[in-house]
Specification:
Order of helices and strands: HEEEHEEHHEHHHEEHHHHEEEEHHEHH
Structural class: alpha+beta
Radius of gyration: 23 Å
CATH architecture of the largest domain: Alpha-Beta Complex
CATH class of the largest domain: Alpha Beta
Helix content: 25-40%
Shape: globular
Strand order of the largest sheet: 6-12-11-10-9-8-7-13
Number of strands: 13
Bound molecules: FE2/S2 (inorganic) cluster, fe (ii) ion
CATH topology of the largest domain: Naphthalene 1,2-dioxygenase Alpha Subunit, Chain A, domain 1
Largest sheet: 8 strands, antiparallel
Number of helices: 15
């Protein structure tokens, strides 16, 4: 059943095409959502159907004689696949199958995309903003960096405490794990940290996540994902990140080496009550969005690093990424894959290792699985 619907979805998506007119390159569609029977370029009026075929060229007979409509249709995305409602596309026809790329990360992604029957949907539209930093700062932090949270985000946590509460009692969870995938993906999460969601997203969201939907989540995903993982960060290599439970999803689009354009969505369970969906929408707006109080903490760190890296000497500095370097394990009884303590940089090493490997490779065939080993990073630091 699921397979049939996936095949159908891929058939619909097979007409996905570059949003670019083949005459002078004008953007064909400037809306983020909606319906249309055709796309007519606003520059000179070339018209395309929704499957992406050029169907009309103004003054064709007199001006051109004949335009080959097949040849001058927009560029199609050659490789498409989906996972739990997410659509992945790649311009490179040689790219390995999505299934292979996601690998062990799927088990962790299901924490956000498969908790209850019916899957998820986006609410509130796409939010876009620009941050003056390299795309890897954002992707690495969501991949591996829980370490910044108790320090960078302490102010909004204190602000969310009940009136009269003692700010010195603002405690941060200590228990949790991190996972690193050989293909560069990573995630980290607290374990058994009740109260975390309520403080950040409010009562209605916390009640839905921790009570209403929890029995079904446990039945589908088991005890550890259904009941114990709280407050996760996650990156699917290279540039797709999300925070399960908080339910923000974002793609980090590089705008050159010094700037990113963030496209962020709020994700909710499709069958959640309408009031919960709206509570989620507002809560994510308040916390992790262009004006979100926690988003500012992150963006501030990334832009300041980027500014300092303009200096010639600053760019040559060796930084310490050794946290948890001797604590990798492959035998966690509850978790698949390579894991470590929640405050670790194992997944960051995996992310940068994979990126470096890709930058050096001539083709997909040259890529191994595993990136740079922790031993080589240790050796580099010892020699510094
Ligand atoms: S650029 Fe689209 S019709 Fe000219
Ligand atoms: Fe953060």
């Amino acid at each position: 059943m699921a397979f049939t619907s996936k095949v159908r979805l891929l058939r619909i998506l097979s007409s996905l095409f570059m949003n670019q007119c083949r005459h002078r390159g004008m953007r064909l569609c400037r809306a983020d959502a909606g319906n249309s029977k055709a796309f007519v370029c606003s520059y000179h009026g070339w018209a395309y159907d929704i499957a992406g075929k050029l169907v009309d060229v103004p003054f064709e007979d007199r001006a051109y004689g004949k335009v080959d409509k097949e040849q001058w249709s927009p560029i199609k995305v050659p490789c498409l696949d989906t996972y739990k409602g997410l659509i992945f596309g790649c311009w490179d026809e040689q790219v390995p199958p999505l299934e292979e790329h996601l690998g062990g990360m799927k088990w962790y992604m299901d924490l956000m995309f498969d908790r209850v029957e019916g899957g998820t949907e986006a609410v509130g539209g796409v939010h876009k903003w620009v941050i003056d930093c390299n795309w890897k700062f954002a992707a690495e932090q969501f991949c591996s960096d829980m370490y910044h949270a108790p320090f960078s985000h302490i102010s909004p946590v204190i602000a969310a405490m009940p009136p009269g509460a003692d700010p010195s009692q603002a405690a941060w969870p200590m228990e949790g794990r991190q996972f690193s995938d050989p293909n560069g993906h990573g995630t980290g999460f607290f374990l058994n940290a009740p109260g975390f969601l309520q403080a950040l997203l409010g009562e209605e969201v916390a009640t839905y996540y921790e009570e209403t939907s929890r029995p079904e989540a446990i039945a589908r995903l088991g005890e550890i994902r259904g009941a114990q993982m709280d407050g996760s960060h996650m990156t699917v290599f290279p540039s797709l990140s999300f925070l399960p439970a908080i339910n923000t999803l974002r793609a980090w689009h590089p705008r050159g080496p010094n700037q990113i354009e963030v496209w962020a969505l709020t994700i909710v369970d499709k069958k959640a009550p309408a009031s919960v969906k709206d509570a989620y929408r507002k809560a994510v707006l308040r916390t992790f969005s262009a004006g979100g109080i926690l988003e500012q903490d992150d963006g501030e760190n990334w832009t300041e690093i980027q500014k300092i890296l303009r200096g010639h000497k600053a760019r040559q500095t060796l930084f310490n990424a050794q946290m948890g370097i001797d604590n990798d394990r492959h035998d966690d009884p509850d978790l698949p894959g390579k894991t470590n303590y929640v405050y670790s940089e194992m997944a960051a090493r995996g992310f940068y290792g994979r990126w470096q490997e890709m930058m050096m490779a001539e083709s997909w065939a040259d890529l191994s699985c595993g990136g740079v080993s922790d031993d080589s990073i240790k050796g580099e630091a010892d020699n510094a």
